[in-house]
Here is the input.
Amino acid sequence: AQRVTQPEKLLSVFKGAPVELKCNYSYSGSPELFWYVQYSRQRLQLLLRHISRESIKGFTADLNKGETSFHLKKPFAQEEDSAMYYCALGGGGSYIPTFGRGTSLIVHP
Amino acid sequence: GAGVSQTPSNKVTEKGKYVELRCDPISGHTALYWYRQSLGQGPEFLIYFQGTGAADDSGLPNDRFFAVRPEGSVSTLKIQRTERGDSAVYLCASSKNVGLGSYNEQFFGPGTRLTVL
Here is the structure.
């Protein structure tokens, strides 16, 4: 069975501090990992996919199969990064994601 | 262009009633998905359509839930004999295509907040 765990419901940091949002997954096959973001009063949207290996808005995420993790990182948080972040898992050729419960990131000025 | 739209934005109903939630996908998107998001949880997959047919309805919780997409565009999620536990935000998303081994980004609508009293 597919499972995504985001252990932190809330992460609160100050502007300029590093940020790491944790995500662990459980999947027996070859996983596809995603991060989605939902800003206040906006729609859920894709932030990045592990296979793209790109940096979006300064965020990166590396798939670690040994630790079954896909943590989202940013070296210097900005106030506009405040949002709900969802880690999601797809696999077996299916791109229908299984979502984690989400982490609320609050960046204080 | 216009994104995915959902109506109504809010729906309050009484236990036992029937409700319909509508989704208008992005024009030209052949794949359409429904999700349910309960308070404090991530979106939970319900059903997806490829064209007019339900390609995967494994996420529907029981037979009170049903969805249609008769012309391959607009979709309606139907819930019979609503229960208080059905209260949630129902999200719709669409993508250009879904094929085994291919990825197409899903674009989400704003959701319908359903409250069952």
Notes: Chain A is about 0% helix and 50% strand. The mean pLDDT of chain A is 92. Residues 17 and 76 of chain A are 5 Å apart (CA to CA). The first strand of chain A starts at residue 3 and ends at 5.
